[in-house]
């Protein structure tokens, strides 16, 4: 028996004190009875074959209900108590065990623990119903003083309530115990329990068990489906972004109109964050409004941190002028005012005072999200929406904890399952809260637009060249050829990298990589090359693909930029003029590796010869195709 009454414990005492309440108290003969028996009266002997004091207790004997190892009861009392317990078992099926032992020094807490140990060890009460009652007596050596505990399993409490057992204690047992009649108290108590252990009360227990099962098996899953299902349903209806076709080939030249850098971070991330504040500060720095300074802090252990200095924008600086083309957003203007006021008269915020800026800009995220709602990019402020649903999830979890506490104290396995279902639903709601903020159709388009702009910036940075790279571009070769075919025709031939081997003496053709099937910016292809017995492959990325005007790509070897190849087409009266340009981007340390891998010692001279042959073959192919038409 593992379930037991932890909230209300019924105990019996013969103490003269009038303050008798639930809890283990002493069982004693009255002072008058003790005096009449004589102060030096010898203690009665222990019961027959008394085992060691429990717990642990000896194994129960089949068919026996009363174990008077203290020798406290008369044989008649034992027989009548046994008969009464048997009648109770036949009538309602509940199990009752009476146990006495001599255990000097036992108090209310230890007696309660002994009763619980006996119930658990013997399994008093039917499994799954827990309708057991243990009446345990701990006497001192006189057998006139001690403790008694009436310990009821949860199922038995539905047959004889706590209040009824309290009445047994106060009205039936205490008067007899005060007069020193322990036998009478035992018989009166068990008789009253027999009266209350009716079939009606047993049926009430059965009804409780059925209701408990229904609550657990139906209520638990239903609560989970209602809480978790509602959150998921609301996300499907209001929290999902509209479906907008995304394409890796889409490049945008600028962000959406009216979008500041900080607002863009909210659209990309789904809500304002510390990153939004950092983005806004960097935006202000790019406009010349402030600058960041590295400062050493610490007296003994030095560390480098960043401070902020408020600046007067130098509008004659072309970079600052370019960044100030768009007006400053209202939210960023508010942030600038807060930063300026924090800087004070010296217009400087030291690194160790950056945290003072926090309280002043705490509202920045909320203002920024409100601005994105005003611009029509979100259905509601993301943080507010997240907070609402996260709060609902937390409330569900707290309610689950409350229900679980109630379930443990009843106890009720059905309510335990309800608590688990409610808690699981709360967890699902809290998880859904993170993805609940929904972008509008316009907001979803703005995000796709930003992704395209990001690709543009990424491609631009990949193709950007440092001054060192520009200075190293003295190894470039250019060859021009007049071709009697239209620029569009020749461009189509050149931009089909799978045909490059038809006119190049070194290249044996290429194959598109990924989902690329034609020339477009960003598309990648692998080229096969051969010079004599040396063969190798390279990977190139298309840079320009302007039909009839320009086609270019960059060749790389892993992270190393190798070369840029470009073809420009100019219309002429007889066809077009084609210029092929090769630009060497290899760093100095890489050139010896290239010589070993390709067998070409003088790459510029080798490429010039090959480029001349390429354009000759290209012209022949284009012109023959034109003549045949």
List the helices and strands and how they pair.
Elements: E1 10-12, E2 26-28, H1 31-37, E3 66-68, H2 75-92, E4 95-102, H3 108-122, E5 132-139, E6 145-152, H4 154-157, H5 162-178, H6 182-196, H7 199-239, H8 261-269, H9 274-286, E7 290-297, E8 303-310, H10 318-323, H11 330-343, E9 348-349, H12 357-360, H13 364-374, H14 382-409, H15 413-433, H16 441-463, H17 467-471, E10 476-483, H18 487-495, E11 507-512, E12 524-531, E13 534-546, E14 550-557, E15 560-572, E16 575-584, H19 591-598, H20 603-628
What features would you describe in this structure?
The protein is an alpha+beta fold. The protein folds into four domains: 10-197, Diaminopimelate Epimerase, Chain A, domain 1 (Roll); 209-258 and 378-461, no CATH class; 261-374, no CATH class; 465-628, START domain (Alpha-D-Glucose-1,6-Bisphosphate, Chain A, domain 4). It is built from 20 helices and 16 strands. The chain has a seven-stranded antiparallel β-sheet, with helices on one face. Strands 1, 2, 3, 4, 5 and 6 form a six-stranded mixed β-sheet that branches. Strands 7-8-9 form a three-stranded antiparallel β-sheet. Strand 13 and strand 14 (550-557) form a beta hairpin. Helix 2 packs parallel to helix 6 (182-196) and helix 8 (261-269) crosses helix 13. The radius of gyration is 46 Å and the shape is elongated.
